[in-house]
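Lab intake sheet, docking and co-folding queue.

SAMPLE TYPE: protein with bound small molecule
LIGAND NAME: flavin-adenine dinucleotide
LIGAND FORMAT: SMILES
REQUESTED OUTPUT: full 3D complex as structure tokens
PRIORITY: normal
SUBMITTED BY: R.K., bench team

The fields below were copied directly from the construct record.
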Amino acid sequence: MEYRIVKIIQEALNVRRFILQAEMPFQCAFSPGQFVVLQSNLKEQGVVQRSYSISSVEPNMQTIELCISLNPAGVFTPWLFEQHVDFWIVGSEPQGSFVFQPTGNNIPYVFICTGTGVAPFRSMINEALKINGASVYLIFGNRLAEDILYHEDWKQLAQQNENFHYHPVLSRQEQSFAHYGYVHPVYTKILEKVDDAQIYVCGWKDMLVETRRNLKSMGFNRRQYHFEQYD
Ligand SMILES: Cc1cc2nc3c(=O)[nH]c(=O)nc-3n(C[C@H](O)[C@H](O)[C@H](O)COP(=O)(O)OP(=O)(O)OC[C@H]3O[C@@H](n4cnc5c(N)ncnc54)[C@H](O)[C@@H]3O)c2cc1C
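RESULT FIELD (auto-filled):
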């Protein structure tokens, strides 16, 4: 199937939000957490495919949003960042099993990510906050304040909903509103107080490997944590 780019928003220095509309008669319904695979036939590399989590908040039948980081040395994203509104791009239907699974009312739902790993959490957190009595935590690591994706949206959500706890973490800049360092001590402090939790982790391999190791050593098991690895 094909998607038409209907809007592009510069979200951070090297990150853009692409709003895509599916060609008729397809619809863009998805389960919170799923991704699509985009494809292009590039001159040197031939057909190249890359996966992107859907960053829309609501499963909307008309459009999906993707939040994509430019890798200047990469194959696909330099090409994608040259495309404009009204360009048609080949892509898959939403797919993937890293989807939000409500399992209990009075447990914490903890979302841990860095960079564009936050993309699938937009719709997953929206779903988690519908669960009666659930506390929902977002631990979101970035280097600098200017890198934080959807920062205003997260702040607003935390103001509007007392069950949502937003923990931005910055590794290269001290700011009064954020933790300084890496995500690991931040989720460890939250999780060491609880026996049960549902934990979702998304992003690049290094962060995932360390998080998995920490969660295991804290006694959490495979039914309690869920991973989506970007590389
Ligand atoms: C299920 C899934 C969902 C994904 N969702 C997103 C998403 O929502 N947004 C998004 O931007 N990407 C996402 N990705 C990553 C995406 O598929 C591509 O890998 C990425 O866009 C780089 O593609 P490229 O062709 O430009 O670079 P490549 O030529 O594939 O990259 C070359 C190398 O750079 C590494 N690399 C690329 N970008 C980064 C980075 N930012 N940080 C660290 N290492 C990097 C790659 O691991 C690779 O080794 C997802 C991947 C998967 C598997």
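REVIEWER NOTE: The chain has a mean pLDDT of 95.
SIGN-OFF: pending second check by T.M.
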